[in-house]
Design brief:
The complex is a heterodimer of chains A (487) and B (348). With 487 residues, chain A is an alpha+beta fold. Chain A is built from eleven helices and 15 strands. In chain A, the strands form six sheets. Chain A has a four-stranded antiparallel sheet. Chain A has a three-stranded antiparallel sheet with strand order 9-10-11, with helices on one face. A two-stranded antiparallel ribbon of chain A has the order 1-4. In chain A, helix 1 packs antiparallel against helix 11, helix 4 runs antiparallel to helix 6 and helix 6 packs antiparallel against helix 9. In chain B, the strands form two sheets. In chain B, strands 1-2 form a two-stranded antiparallel ribbon. In chain B, strands 3-4 form a two-stranded antiparallel ribbon. The chains are: A alpha+beta (487), B mainly alpha (348).
């Protein structure tokens, strides 16, 4: 009869534990990354009595979390891809804003106005007002080259800051994964359940996956390892490797900008691993910074350089618009009291292609005196507009890309490329967003809590509890019956 | 059977809502800007085309201004030529009258003052200014081109303007070809980029030194060295409009009918040259007119193309908005039933 009590008690305990687990599941139904837990119930080992095999009730073998490692890995990979595309799209979206000329004037319109101002000046080279319009337009071109170059550098610096913040994040994550590894190893050694801690570790790995492609595996000694693809192991059991982000000089930087951030392993400070990350935010940030923005900066410099050189080459051949006195032999002087009369640069000649856009400015001559804007090919010819016409015709000269494209074509190609790149990144991001939602759905379908299911279970366990109690009550009554026999 | 959990339900719902809302937002932006594109990546290829078209339109606007300016200049030149023709006709009339022995010397001397007046008129035309610019001075537009004795201080510059892409037209005649006998009969005006050999739009691109075309350019340049022309060109000087009128005055004052007779063919020659020049101006004006028409047509088609690429199709836009709104409503409705009910509602 004591068996009945025991069996009843084991059922009571099991139902109580099951209800607890149901409660835990419901309580955590909205916890990010929570995997529902399941009670693994089994019969107590039977005993043989009088030749019969008798059951001894039930017991809870373990509480397991419902979890599929393959889904988890797929989810991590999707998170990596999605973070990569999203970051790329976001950064490139900012880059393309620089080249957005749909609503306002950009370099293309400003350059066009510059050439057309020379066309206008060719109409009336004698007109001082138009000269000052030309100079104003040229200043706008200067300003816009600087704007593009400056904004590109700003974006580059912005990305540097993002990288720094991400690295801090990554270090925190790897440290906490290492800590969790230690805790899990300890608890499992003493036989405790670690479902919740494993969920937490999975969540950390997921967070880490946003930054780069993560590979996880359990090594021969049973310790959990996390490695960044392309970099190496970052967490091994209770140990973790920190990353360091520090600014470097122009020569060491991977995007030829002074003070830009490079990433190192803490143990190997000599070797930059900035460009080694695969997938995720870090790869997106570094790629946009080192490829897209860097290329655009070079491109802007080339355009600025070619623009300055071509305008200067033509402008130098012209004569100033003020009267020049020939000397006694009828030879034109090269200088008068206002400076040189021909061979004048319109823009200051840049020292090199690199930095041409950053350092573009009007030459001192043009800035100081409007008559130094040369329109005439012949001295003392106020009406001679041939230099002005020639400068305006530079608009249609194929000077870029080995003489195959005009400045405008070359610049528009740049805009086209950045537009296509951004467009592709955005489509990729959208698609991967869909895939991510799908795989998250798959994971939640397996691991997520269903209130309906838990409710049904709750009813079930409650009934089992009640019935088990009834069994004990029955045993109690049986005891009473037996005890009352003597009375 | 696939298991469904609370979170998978809400994820699915959130995703669907987000998608519908984003589409609606895109459409609403289109609706408020009435543009299909707000950033280059919306239509990378279209964006480039729009920018190219904008450049072309703004070039065309400038060409249009150039056309207006050129037309104004050519009209003034034309008017001046008209006045000169009148002067020469009047001179010819007087010369024919006075070439016969019908009039006596006193009357001829009187007529001579009339011819002097004609010469003054011609001189005022020769030194005509528009604004501060002398129109018959070649490139040297700020210096008075003709001295009182009829010597020319200007040069042989032809000012050219671009009135549509790569189409240059001359907008002036220089004093020498109008007032002096023009031995250079070629009607072609020099290309303004002649001297810019390294530019590809220059007609002399890649022309080597010593080449024929280039020699011509150099010749023309040398021809502008007017001092030598005037010294050697005694004959020319006597056959310019002023010297012919001067001779006519002298002949009348001296009562030299033979000389007056001699002068008649020269006056005729000048008059016919003026007519040739007017014809030349007229043909330039005509070509400007056709350039203007081309620009207008090009502008309209550019606008049209731009609008097709960049502007939102309003009818389509509104039907799209309506459709997306319907989708969003349906998503809300289905979500309402999905997330608001659980088994608990039925376990009372």
């Amino acid at each position: 009869m004591a068996d009945i009590l025991n069996i009843g008690k084991s059922g009571l305990m099991a139902s109580k534990k099951s209800l607890e687990t149901t409660g835990h599941n419901i309580a955590n139904s909205n916890t990010e990354g929570y995997s529902r837990q399941r009670v693994m119930q089994t019969t107590n080992p039977p005993i043989v009595k009088y030749g019969n095999i008798e059951g001894t009730g039930t017991r809870i073998r373990s509480i397991e979390r419902v979890h599929d490692e393959n889904i988890e890995k797929r989810l991590n990979k999707t998170i990596t891809d999605n973070a990569n595309y999203k970051e790329t799209a976001e950064q490139l979206g900012q880059v393309e804003d620089i080249y957005n000329e749909i609503e306002n004037d950009g370099l293309n319109k400003v350059l066009n106005k510059f050439y057309n101002s020379f066309r206008e000046l060719a109409n009336q080279p004698e007109n001082e007002t138009i000269r000052s319009v030309v100079r104003d337009q040229a200043s706008l071109v200067v300003k816009d080259f600087k704007r593009i170059n400056g904004t590109l550098e700003q974006l580059s610096i912005g990305i540097d800051n993002r990288i720094k913040a991400q690295i801090v994040d990554v270090n925190q994550l790897t440290r906490s994964i290492a800590d969790l590894n230690k805790k899990i190893a300890y608890l499992e050694a003493v036989g405790d359940q670690t479902g919740d801690l494993r969920d937490e570790r999975d969540a950390r790995v997921r967070d880490l996956s946003e930054n780069f492609k993560v590979n996880t595996y359990v090594d021969g000694k049973g310790s959990f390892n996390v490695s960044a693809v392309g970099i190496g192991t970052l967490v091994s059991g209770g140990y973790h490797q920190e990353l360091v982000a520090s600014p470097v000089g122009k020569a060491e930087s991977s995007n030829r900008m002074a003070g830009s951030i490079e990433i190192y392993l803490k143990d190997k400070p000599g070797r930059a691993i900035t460009e080694k990350f695969t997938g995720g935010k870090l790869d997106a940030l570094v790629t946009v910074r080192n490829d897209s923005i860097n290329k655009l900066r070079t491109n802007t410099d080339t355009i600025a350089h070619e623009f300055i050189q071509t305008v200067n080459a033509v402008h130098r051949r012209g004569y100033v618009s003020r009267p020049i006195q020939a000397d006694a032999e009828g030879i034109m002087p090269l200088y008068d009291d206002k400076g040189p009369v021909t061979g004048i640069d319109f823009f200051r000649t840049p020292a090199s292609v690199e930095g041409a856009a950053a350092n573009i400015m009007l030459s001192d001559e043009v800035r100081s005196d409007l008559s130094n804007i040369a329109t005439a090919l012949k001295p003392n010819s106020a009406g001679d507009n041939r230099v002005a016409v020639a400068i305006s015709k530079l608009q249609h000269e194929r000077v870029m890309a080995g003489g195959t494209a005009t400045l405008e074509e070359s610049y528009l190609q740049t805009i086209g490329n950045i537009g296509l790149e951004t467009n592709k990144a955005r489509i990729d991001a959208e698609q991967s967003q869909g895939i991510l939602a799908q795989i998250k759905g798959v994971k939640e379908r397996v691991s997520g809590v269903s209130i309906d299911e838990e409710t049904a279970n709750m009813v079930r366990y409650q009934h089992a509890y009640e019935a088990s109690a009834k069994v004990m009550q029955a045993a109690d009554e049986m005891f009473s019956t037996v005890l009352n026999i003597k009375r | 059977m696939t298991r469904v959990s609370e979170n998978s339900q809400t994820h699915a719902l959130q995703f669907a809502l987000n998608k519908a809302k984003r589409k609606l937002e895109d459409l609403q932006i289109q609706g408020s800007t009435l543009k299909k594109m707000t950033k280059p990546s919306d239509d990378p290829v279209g964006n480039i085309e729009v920018l190219t078209l904008s450049s072309r339109t703004s070039d065309n606007q400038q060409y249009m201004r150039n056309i207006q300016y050129a037309t104004m200049n050519l009209n003034i030149v034309e008017q001046s030529l008209d006045q000169l023709t009148e002067v020469m006709n009047k001179a010819k009339e007087l010369a024919i009258q006075q070439a016969s022995d019908f009039y006596d010397p006193e009357i001829r001397a009187g007529v001579a003052t009339e011819v002097k007046q004609l010469r003054n008129h011609a001189m005022s035309v020769a030194n005509k200014r528009v604004g501060q610019k002398y129109i018959f001075a070649g490139y040297n537009t700020l210096q008075q081109p003709f001295n009182q004795d009829g010597t020319y201080n200007g040069d042989k510059g032809h000012i050219t303007l671009e009135v549509s892409k790569d189409f240059f037209i001359p907008i002036n005649l220089h004093g020498e070809e109008v007032f002096y006998v023009n031995d250079d009969t070629s009607a072609a005006s020099p290309h303004p980029l002649n001297r810019f050999k390294d530019m590809k739009s220059s007609p002399n691109h890649n022309v080597q030194e010593g080449d024929e075309t280039l020699d011509q350019v150099d010749l023309e340049e040398k021809g502008r060295d007017l001092a030598s022309v005037q010294e050697k060109g005694e004959f020319k000087q006597r056959t310019n409009i002023f010297s012919v009128l001067d001779s006519l005055v002298a002949a009348m004052e001296n009562n030299d009918t033979d000389l007056i007779q001699d002068l008649l063919p020269r006056i005729d020659k000048i008059a016919s040259r003026l007519i040739t020049l007017r014809a030349k101006i007229g043909s330039v004006t005509n070509s400007i007119e056709s350039a203007r028409n081309n620009l207008e047509v090009e502008d309209i088609s550019a606008m049209e193309r731009k609008s097709t690429i960049a502007d939102a199709d309003i009818a389509k836009l509104f039907s799209d908005i309506q459709r997306e709104q319907a989708i969003l409503q349906t998503t809300y409705k289905s979500g309402q039933n999905l997330i608001n009910t659980t088994l608990l509602d039925f376990l009372r």
